[in-house]
């Protein structure tokens, strides 16, 4: 009897529960969370790889923003037809931007940019003359070292400004020559139109926005 009672007690003891195997849906959810965590984690930095990685393509948004004023101008009927009754030198920036694409670099646009470049050239020459005159006049010997250092710093700044103006003047002269030859307004690398918006903002530009971005990326990578 005693042995039979013990067997009955053992048989009534519940067997230990085993952990249920994860369902297919649970496995998929766990995998998705792991994938998301992997995507969100920052990529390891490798300065060597970053330096010699191929250049990224030019940002298209910048080109779109560059042409935004032109798109807005084309919606104004008064601006669209202004070029038909005015000379190129009389046109405003907005009126040039509103001109049809088929009139790109026509005689009036050439006249417009020639006037803009000539005005820019005159301004640079005037500033250069004032800088030279100021340097010539300011030759007084100053005994105080602090005052002398200040004057020398001002002279160095004026000389750097003069050097920038000299380089700008060279680009202006080259741009006017491009007007004469019929090359003005077209990219040196691709031959495509540079765009009126970019030319108005930078009359001496010789590259389209995308070509300029590609060149800057190469210079950043290789230092050329």
From TrEMBL:
What domain of life does the native source organism fall in?
A: Bacteria
Per UniProt, the keywords (alphabetical) are:
Cytoplasm, Metal-binding, Zinc, Zinc-finger
* SUPFAM superfamilies listed in its UniProt record: DnaK suppressor protein DksA, alpha-hairpin domain, Glucocorticoid receptor-like (DNA-binding domain)
Q: Please describe what this protein does.
A: Transcription factor that acts by binding directly to the RNA polymerase (RNAP). Required for negative regulation of rRNA expression and positive regulation of several amino acid biosynthesis promoters.
Instruction: Say which family it is in.
Output: Belongs to the DksA family.
**HAMAP family on file:** DksA
State the oligomer form and interacting partners: Interacts directly with the RNA polymerase.
Signal sequence interval, chain numbering: none
For this entry, list what GO says about its biological process.
Answer: regulation of gene expression
Residues that span the membrane, as ranges: none
Per the UniProt entry, what species is this protein from, by scientific name? Roseateles saccharophilus
**Annotated spans, Disordered:** 1-70
Bias kind Polar residues: ranges: 1-11
Supply the name of the protein: RNA polymerase-binding transcription factor DksA
UniProt biased composition (Low complexity)? 12-31
Q: Please tell me one Gene Ontology term that the record gives under cellular component.
A: cytoplasm
User: One Pfam family from the UniProt entry?
Assistant: DksA_N
Annotated DnaK suppressor protein DksA N-terminal domain ranges read: 109-178
Compartments in which it is found: Cytoplasm
GO MF annotations in UniProt: zinc ion binding
Is Hydrolase included in the keywords of this UniProt record? no
The answer to whether keyword Zinc-finger applies is yes
Checking InterPro entries in the record gives: DksA_N, DksA_RNA_pol-bd, DnaK_N, Znf_DskA_TraR, Znf_DskA_TraR_CS
Please classify the protein's predominant subcellular localization into one broad category. Answer: cytoplasm
- Annotated Zinc finger DksA/TraR C4-type domain residues: 182-216
């Amino acid at each position: 009897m005693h042995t039979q009672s013990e067997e009955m007690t053992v048989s009534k003891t519940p067997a230990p529960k085993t952990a249920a195997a994860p369902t297919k849906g649970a496995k998929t959810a766990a995998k998705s969370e792991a994938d998301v965590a992997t995507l969100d984690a920052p990529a390891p930095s490798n300065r060597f790889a970053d330096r010699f990685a191929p250049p990224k393509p030019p940002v298209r948004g910048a080109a779109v923003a560059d042409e935004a004023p032109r798109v807005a101008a084309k919606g104004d009927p008064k601006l669209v037809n202004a070029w038909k009754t005015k000379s190129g030198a009389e046109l405003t920036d907005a009126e040039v931007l509103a001109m049809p694409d088929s009139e790109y670099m026509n005689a009036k646009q050439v006249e417009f940019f020639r006037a803009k470049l000539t005005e820019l050239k005159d301004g640079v020459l005037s500033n250069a003359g004032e800088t030279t005159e100021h340097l010539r006049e300011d030759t007084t010997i100053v005994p105080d070292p602090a005052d002398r250092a200040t004057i020398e710093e001002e002279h160095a700044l004026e000389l750097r400004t003069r050097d920038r103006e000299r380089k700008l003047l060279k680009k202006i002269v080259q741009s006017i020559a491009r007007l004469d030859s019929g090359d003005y307004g077209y990219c040196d690398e691709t031959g495509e139109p540079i765009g009126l918006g970019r030319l108005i903002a930078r009359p001496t530009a010789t590259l389209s926005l995308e070509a300029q971005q590609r060149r800057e990326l190469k210079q950043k990578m290789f230092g050329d």
